[in-house]
Design goal:
Layout: E1 4-8, H1 13-24, E2 28-35, H2 42-54, E3 58-63, H3 86-91, H4 101-116, E4 120-122, H5 138-151, H6 153-157, E5 163-165, H7 173-182, H8 207-219
Parallel strand pairs: 1-2, 1-4, 2-3, 4-5
Helix pairs in contact: 1-7, 7-8
Length: 231
């Protein structure tokens, strides 16, 4: 029987590439997404399309209400930063950081992994071309993995060790894209923008759009994302 893997899927470029890597390694795929009160649902539509394209065993969407906590431009009445330089993006933790989001998501993934007897959780975090989020760093992932093996039945019984897999963590965005293309990823299915227009077209100016466009340019590939007419 195939080993099972829970894949955290936002419908974005990174999580989709992580899913492709898990599939290439022979895992049976269980896709996990969240409606957490983010600014739009386009990323969830993308996650659904990605799950269908990969033929996952199950795609689970969990509803959370992080609006009640707020504190982020993605969950609160705070403007999404636009037209920032690379130095600005990487020099500080931006307001698009959602407090404890990866911890919350990984905790749910851990619970599902226990139920389906999976010992591998894939998350598309990256510590090279990223927005400076503290929960994308290798030391954070290592600490969560240690906690997971202290907090679960499987970990305590010592039957196996649960692993938080981060295949993209040391890759540039261009390398991530190239790896995805090698594995047959259709990036037209993905959505990256923090602040799309009402038709779902990417703004082209937020940090996420900037890093995506930079990655495709450096990979010398055409970005299939739809951007607003002005861009």
């Amino acid at each position: 029987m195939k080993k099972k893997a829970v894949i955290l899927s936002s419908g974005g470029l990174d999580s989709t590439t992580a899913m492709a890597i898990a599939k290439n390694e022979g895992f049976e795929l269980f896709s996990l997404s969240f409606f957490y009160g983010q600014r739009h649902s386009y990323e969830l539509n993308a996650a659904k399309k990605v799950a269908e394209a990969f033929g996952v065993t199950k795609h689970l969407v969990i509803n959370l209400d992080l609006n009640k906590i707020g504190g982020s431009a993605l969950t609160d009445n705070i403007e999404v930063p636009k037209s920032r330089t690379l130095i600005s993006i990487t020099g500080e933790i931006p307001v698009t950081y959602v407090p404890a989001r990866n911890t919350i998501f990984l905790a749910h993934a851990l619970a599902w992994a226990e139920v389906i007897k999976s010992f591998d959780i894939f998350i598309g975090v990256n510590a090279v071309d990223f927005s400076g989020y503290p929960d994308c760093r290798p030391e954070y992932i290592s600490a969560f993995e240690q906690m997971a093996n202290l907090a679960t039945k499987a970990g305590v019984e010592g039957k196996t060790r649960l692993k938080i897999r981060t295949p993209l963590i040391s890759m540039t965005k261009a390398r991530i894209i190239k790896r995805g293309i090698e594995l047959g990823v259709d990036y037209s299915l993905t959505h990256s923008c923090y602040d799309p227009d009402p038709e779902g077209r990417a703004c082209g100016l937020c940090d996420s759009c900037f890093l995506r466009k930079k990655g495709f340019e450096e990979a010398e590939l055409q970005d299939p994302a739809k951007y607003t007419d002005a861009l």
